[in-house]
Amino acid sequence: MTTYQFKTNINCSGCIEKVTPFMQQIPQLLSWQVDTKNPQKILTVTAPDQLKINELVTAKVREAGFTIIALTEN
């Protein structure tokens, strides 16, 4: 299991609600959360060591209309 972090512009509970259906489309995710109090709005994702989680998460967050930059590499 690996933890991945991303800098985003997901900054409120409404934004989290908007991105949730997109994140639910990634069955490999064990958990995810956004620290909206952090100035960088850090999205933390936990997933098994497999596939290209950074690419999957980045694509879904962008599809939801938000910006995202991976802080950790696959």
TrEMBL record:
Q: Name one GO molecular function term.
A: metal ion binding
What is the protein named? Copper chaperone CopZ
Q: Which organism is it from?
A: Arachidicoccus rhizosphaerae
